[in-house]
Amino acid sequence: MPGPAMLPLDGYPRRDGAELLARARAMAAELATRRTVRDFAPEPVPVEVMEAAIEAAASAPSGANQQPWHFALIGRGPLRAEIRAAAEAEERAFYAERAGERWLETLAPLGTDWQKPFLEIAPWLVAVFAERHGIGADGRPQKHYYVQESVGIATGLLIATLHHAGLATLTHTPSPMGFLNRLCNRPAREKPFLLLVAGYPAPDARTPAAARSKKPLAAVTSRL
Questions:
Q1: Assessment of whether the complete model's pTM goes beyond 0.90
Q2: Which of 97, 107, 60, 90 minimizes the C-alpha distance to 173?
Q3: Does residue 30 sit within a domain?
Q4: Which of 44, 57, 145, 202 could form a disulfide with 158 if both were Cys (CB 3.0 to 4.6 A apart)?
């Protein structure tokens, strides 16, 4: 039985050690400037920018190359108010009832609360969905593998690409997020992964000092 079709590898020009290090350090330095932003400007962003970033995200590796993701790109319109209302309802319940005292203490240095005006102010939202299973050619459910890991990697590429383009982002995860299936008209086999807010930061945007603290390399790395 013949094996799978294979193609020559491209996209990997040979670079020496000095260039490899310089490029890695440049990327690390750029990503180190990324901040989670909650103050967005209403200034529009071309849809082509968002589509290019989603295209980058969709190039991510995935279990068995099943690409178990869907990106619902949401511009301005009545839907945004519905999403905000549903998200804030869940957030009010979270802060008032669901979150334990220790969790609220952990969140306190970030200054977050149930109010999410950025869901209407920012020019774009991307609702990221994870496909629990696909639909095969025969119409039957097709199991997907490593779904959370695959969608997590794709979302990381999306955030990195938008930052590289010059846009700010916020990962918003109201819990539960089932309302996104209804509002975005997505099937039940897809589970909302997160809601990504994207746009230019407001001119007076501020971010929590506590969020600037990152563990040093030695604390997160081991060389064996």
A1: yes
A2: 90
A3: no
A4: 57
